[in-house]
Amino acid sequence: MHAAQDTQTRLRIRDAEPADLDAIVEIDRQVSGSEKHLYWQDTLSLYGDDDGGRFFLVAENDGRVAGFIMGEIRAWEFGSPACGWVFAIGVARNSLLEGIGSKLLDTLCARFRQAGVTKVRTMIARQDHEVLSFFRSCGMMAGPFQQLEMDVGTGPATDQPDGGTVR
Amino acid sequence: MNLQRATRLALYAVLELADQPDRQLSRAEIAEKFGVSGNHLSKVMRELGKAGLVEAVRGVGGGYWFSGNARRTTLMDIIEIFEPSLFDDAGQREPGKDTDIGRTVNLVLDEINEMMQSTLNSISITTMLQIKGRSRTEPS
After folding, report:
1. How many CB pairs under 8 A join A and B?
2. Could you give the ipTM of this predicted complex?
3. Residues of B with CB below 8 A from A136's CB?
4. Which residues of A touch B120 (CB under 8 A)?
5. How many CA atoms lie within 13 A of B23 on its CB side?
6. Using one digit for the tens of pLDDT, what is the confidence trace for A11-31?
7. Contact residues, chain B to chain A, C-beta under 8 Å
């Protein structure tokens, strides 16, 4: 068990445990507006320990879960050497502006460093200025990749080697 | 991205003042640092004053100080004071805009605009000063 504690605020960052599930679901509901119990149950069981470079941490404030962060080390995706990815971060509405998000990110970055990676990345919706501002304030800048997408249901017709055409 | 001179100067001046919150800076000091005329700077500072981002103390020993909220003020907030229509071309009627080619070109230009707006909206004055602090300590 790894844990980091800020004695001034009684804020403690530790690995997430199965008993944290309800608190994580509730924080995510506050942030995203939807309740995803099954998703977080699966994610917690997959990321609940840091074997294989996966990390799921929670911030405990006065014994109450007030935030969480999830990340993973991935290598050679998109041609990139190993780097840490932050997939999710959430802080309870009534605990915002207390430095909990920064402390979670700092701790996750320390875990990434311990695991030998020196770069951390994340992906945020362009319109989510609140979360973008948070990561910017922590020192993140635009990276060398650009995210692209398309609707596979309405893409252009593609010629097949046998002369057929699919849509 | 091509900002007007006044917009760029406004960004410089706000950052310079916010970086020294305990100090009043004279018009001459700011103008000299960024190589602009005092008159040009005065016009920019007047607009920033109207927006509540700077306050001026008149008289001998007078100057400007940053009066905004550095954590809440973004680069976009400052740019919009001087170029309110920078990203707003929806209402503009330009020849060829409604053709299939025009719409295709605009699709890509809108994508670029969206990315720029997102960046400018998510970087506060405080964050800019943190970036400045980091770049000062990093080896070049």
Report:
1. 29
2. 0.82
3. 122-124, 127
4. none
5. 12
6. 999 999 999 999 999 999 998
7. 74, 114-115, 118-119, 121-124, 126-127, 130-131, 134
